[in-house]
Each structure stands twice: as C-alpha cells, then as structure tokens.
Amino acid sequence: MSFLTTDYDYPLPEDLIAAYPAPVRDQARMMVLDRKTKRISHHRFHELPQFVDAKDLLVLNNTKVIPARIRFRDRNAEVLLIEQIDAKKWRCLVRPGDRFRAGRRFVDGNVAGSVLSVEPSGNRIIEFDQELDFAKIGEVPLPPYIQRAVEPEDSLRYQTVFAARPGAVAAPTAGLHFTPELLAGLPHEFITLHVGIGTFLPVKTDDIRKHQMHEEWYDIGVQAAKRIADAERVLAIGTTAVRTLETVMQLHDRIVPCSGSTDIFIYPPFRFRRVDRLLTNFHLPKSTLLMLVAAFAGRDFILEAYREAVAQKYRFFSYGDCMLIS
Fold first, then answer.
1. d(Cα 66, Cα 69) in Å, to the nearest integer?
2. How many domains does the chain have?
C-alpha cells in the first residue's frame, strides 16, 4: 500500500493511446484478471457473457454526453461546458482566458452571452442569452489525449448505446463496448452519474490523500436500488458506477433510491461494500481512476497487468480496450 502519487505511474508508449475506437464495439480486447489466483488471461469483449452467471447483476451508467465543446468561428477561442447551474448559466473552461474576462460579452454565430465571474480555479460562470440548443451548436468533447479533430462518427462512438440522460462531458468509457444485442442477453440495471471534466484532472499532490476530487451528480431510481441491493453479486461497468454505488453505501449503509453529488476518492486500502466485480478501461498514469482500480485489485497486481497490457499492445484510455477484474 502506498500514498505516493509516483507509485501509481507506469511507462506507456504514445502509440498505444487509442485515437479511434475498435471498428465494432464488442470486438475490443478484454484482459481478464483473477484477484485470488493473480492470473491474467486475454479475450475479446464479445466473450463477456462467458464470464457472467446467474449471481451477477451488471450495473451501468446511462448518462449521455452532451456536445459540450463550443468553438468560436470568428476567433481562435472555445468554451467547454463543465456544469449547468440553471437554464442559461454554465460553469465553463475557456481558451484563451484573456478573451473571457469578467463582465465581457461575446457574440459568435448561434452563441451569445456574458462572463459573470471568474472563479479562483480559473473556471468562468457564463450566462448565455438563451438556453443552448445542442442540435445547432457544440461538438463532442473528446478527451485531451486524443490528438485529432472530431469526426462525424465520434457523435455515435463516444456515446454508449444505452445513453439516456444528458449531462456528461465525458463518456463512461467501459460502457462503450456494449452492443444492444450483447447487453440484452445479460442481467443489468441502470444508474446515472454525469461524468465531469475532473475525470481528466491530474493528481498534483505528492501524497494522494491531499488530492481533492471534483463533484459529480448521481441518481439511483427505485427499481434499480432494489435490484442492486438484492443482487448476490454486482458487476460494476466502469469506475463511475463504482463511485456511485460506494458513495451510497457510505451514506446509507445500503443501496437506496437517492440522488446527490459525490466527491468520493477511492484509493488503497478502500473497503468495497457493494461492488464485487469490475469492468473498466485502461487509465492514465497517476490518475485517480488508476488508484481506484488499484484499490479494487491491489496496486502491485494492477501495475503487473498494465505492464502486460503494454507488452501485448493493448489500446489505452477512452477509445481503448478493457479489463474485467473478478
């Protein structure tokens, strides 16, 4: 067990960062980890049903990614929506900062508004003149490590096939591998956590215990809460499902219908109380998500698995391959 950020690092060749998804969703590779035996095996995602039995309930995040990046046509500037405050007000990241000073107004094509304030973090509170019409403005907010322009296919592929509740600015990427046909044959239930931009923020403290997590809004409905509470074994699809379920366990000691915001930070030696198995993509070095996975499977075992993934040329991050941890 370690609380040093540097102990959650690993070398990653740049060419293993996936710039595009697998041609077919369920054809991505899937590394399978057994925590008890420390065994690692290699499969394809379409084989997932072979690893699911009657004990399992899959829990998936049905958040929907909004086209949160607004590029200005008349100047080299952009706004990234990160949190909606009310109908017209949003918390935003901007570039460049000097063009979005407090009190400044902007008009560009279908977008007009005013910068109400600049927060200590550098985020802007912007009030738009009217509610944003995402059918007319915005583009898919691909992660910063995907170094290419957005393409039409991204509007489909950077979205799960079961996305239903708009509000995320990043995709719950473990869910990207499912096809409707594969999911239909598996016992599953949906919850919601609107993934925020903080999922990409680096840990800047030497001691991970000093890192402050961002907040994200979650919701668990009545039917979902009952099925998850009653499940013999929960297979969480992605770290966002883990964070939601373990937040509710901390607050209520059981899974109940509820909604709210969570800033839970999961790192070793966290005790998981409702998640029994985990499907997740490969995460950035020294990231909070890698720390969560290390808490679930053990830091040494996870770093061994990541070394194996590099050696076997798995594809990393949002559009990359995945691992199933049992």
1. 9
2. 2
Residue type at 243 in one-letter notation: R
Q: Are both 277 and 257 inside the same structural domain?
A: yes
* The pLDDT of residue 201: 80
| CA R_g for the chain | 20
Please name the residue ranges forming H helices in the chain.
154-157, 180-184, 222-230, 239-252, 288-297, 299-311
Asked if residue 298 belongs to a domain, the reply is: yes
Q: Which residue has the tokens 């770093």?
A: 303
| Backbone dihedral region for residue 260 (phi beyond 0: left; psi -120 to 50: alpha; all else: beta) | left
DSSP state of 129: S
Asked whether residue 181 carries a pLDDT value surpassing 70, the answer given is yes
- In sequence order, the β-bridge partners of residue 89 are 127
pLDDT for 52 beyond 70? yes
Query: Do 189 and 59 sit in the same domain of this protein?
Result: yes
In a domain, 210, yes or no: yes
Cβ contacts of 300 within 8 Å, gap of 6 or more: none
Token representation of residue 2: 């370690």
pLDDT tens digit sequence for 94-126: 999 999 999 999 988 889 999 999 999 899 999
- Are 158 and 294 members of one domain? yes
Task: Indicate whether 218 and 260 sit together in one domain.
Answer: yes
Residue-number span of the structural domain to which 86 is assigned = 69-128
Tell which residue, 283, 188, 183, 294, has the closest CA to residue 233: 188
Q: What is the pLDDT of residue 74?
A: 67
The answer to which of 190-199, 240-249, 295-304 has the lowest mean pLDDT is: 190-199
Q: What is the DSSP string of 264-290?
A: ----TT---SS--EEEEE---TT-HHH
Q: What are the distances in angstroms from CA 122 to CA 41, 69, 104, 270, 280? A: 44, 17, 15, 32, 31
Domain shared by 12 and 120, yes or no: no
Contact 198/211 with Cβ under 8 angstroms?
Answer: no
